[in-house]
Amino acid sequence: MPLRLRPHPDPMPSAKPAVQPTFEQALDELDALVRRMESGELTLDESIAAYRRGAELARLCQDKLAQAELDIRQLEGD
After folding, report:
1. What is the pLDDT along the chain (78 residues), one digit of tens a residue?
2. In sequence order, what are the residues at sequence separation of 6 or more whose Cβ sits closer than 8 angstroms to the Cβ of residue 21?
3. Of 1, 19, 62, 63, which has the most beta carbons under 10 Å away?
4. What is the DSSP track for 44-59?
5. Coil/strand/helix, residue 63
6. Is 18 helix (H, G, I), strand (E, B) or coil?
7. Is the entire prediction scored with pTM above 0.90?
Protein backbone atom coordinates (compact mmCIF):
# COMPACT_ATOMS: atom_id res chain seq x y z
CA MET A 1 0.00 0.00 0.00
CA PRO A 2 1.53 3.36 -1.00
CA LEU A 3 2.25 5.92 1.65
CA ARG A 4 -0.22 8.79 1.53
CA LEU A 5 0.86 12.16 2.75
CA ARG A 6 -1.68 14.54 4.13
CA PRO A 7 -1.41 18.02 2.68
CA HIS A 8 0.08 20.53 5.05
CA PRO A 9 -2.44 23.32 5.66
CA ASP A 10 -1.20 26.67 4.46
CA PRO A 11 -0.67 28.86 7.54
CA MET A 12 -1.14 31.99 5.46
CA PRO A 13 -3.45 31.24 2.56
CA SER A 14 -2.72 33.33 -0.48
CA ALA A 15 -6.35 33.42 -1.53
CA LYS A 16 -7.43 37.02 -1.75
CA PRO A 17 -10.01 38.05 0.78
CA ALA A 18 -13.46 39.02 -0.53
CA VAL A 19 -12.83 42.63 0.56
CA GLN A 20 -9.49 44.23 -0.14
CA PRO A 21 -7.82 45.63 2.96
CA THR A 22 -7.33 49.36 3.31
CA PHE A 23 -3.83 50.75 2.85
CA GLU A 24 -3.41 50.94 6.61
CA GLN A 25 -4.63 47.37 7.16
CA ALA A 26 -2.31 46.05 4.45
CA LEU A 27 0.64 47.95 5.90
CA ASP A 28 -0.11 46.65 9.42
CA GLU A 29 -0.37 43.06 8.16
CA LEU A 30 2.86 43.45 6.19
CA ASP A 31 4.60 44.79 9.28
CA ALA A 32 3.35 41.84 11.36
CA LEU A 33 4.54 39.37 8.71
CA VAL A 34 8.00 40.93 8.63
CA ARG A 35 8.24 40.75 12.44
CA ARG A 36 7.23 37.06 12.42
CA MET A 37 9.73 36.26 9.68
CA GLU A 38 12.52 38.11 11.48
CA SER A 39 11.73 36.33 14.75
CA GLY A 40 12.69 32.98 13.26
CA GLU A 41 9.53 31.29 14.57
CA LEU A 42 8.27 30.25 11.12
CA THR A 43 9.05 27.01 9.35
CA LEU A 44 10.46 27.15 5.83
CA ASP A 45 7.03 26.56 4.29
CA GLU A 46 5.46 29.19 6.53
CA SER A 47 8.24 31.62 5.62
CA ILE A 48 7.63 31.08 1.91
CA ALA A 49 3.88 31.60 2.39
CA ALA A 50 4.56 34.73 4.45
CA TYR A 51 6.91 36.04 1.75
CA ARG A 52 4.25 35.49 -0.92
CA ARG A 53 1.60 37.24 1.16
CA GLY A 54 4.03 40.05 1.94
CA ALA A 55 4.72 40.55 -1.76
CA GLU A 56 0.96 40.74 -2.41
CA LEU A 57 0.52 43.28 0.37
CA ALA A 58 3.48 45.36 -0.83
CA ARG A 59 1.98 45.47 -4.35
CA LEU A 60 -1.39 46.44 -2.93
CA CYS A 61 0.18 49.28 -0.94
CA GLN A 62 2.15 50.48 -3.97
CA ASP A 63 -1.00 50.42 -6.12
CA LYS A 64 -2.99 52.35 -3.52
CA LEU A 65 -0.23 54.96 -3.19
CA ALA A 66 -0.01 55.33 -6.97
CA GLN A 67 -3.79 55.79 -7.18
CA ALA A 68 -3.70 58.37 -4.39
CA GLU A 69 -0.99 60.27 -6.27
CA LEU A 70 -3.12 60.25 -9.44
CA ASP A 71 -6.15 61.45 -7.49
CA ILE A 72 -4.15 64.33 -5.99
CA ARG A 73 -2.82 65.34 -9.41
CA GLN A 74 -6.36 65.35 -10.79
CA LEU A 75 -7.57 67.47 -7.86
CA GLU A 76 -4.72 69.91 -8.45
CA GLY A 77 -5.59 70.10 -12.13
CA ASP A 78 -2.31 68.68 -13.49
Report:
1. 454 545 545 555 555 557 899 999 999 999 999 999 999 999 999 999 999 999 999 999 999 999 999 999 999 986
2. 29, 57, 60
3. 63
4. HHHHHHHHHHHHHHHH
5. helix
6. coil
7. no
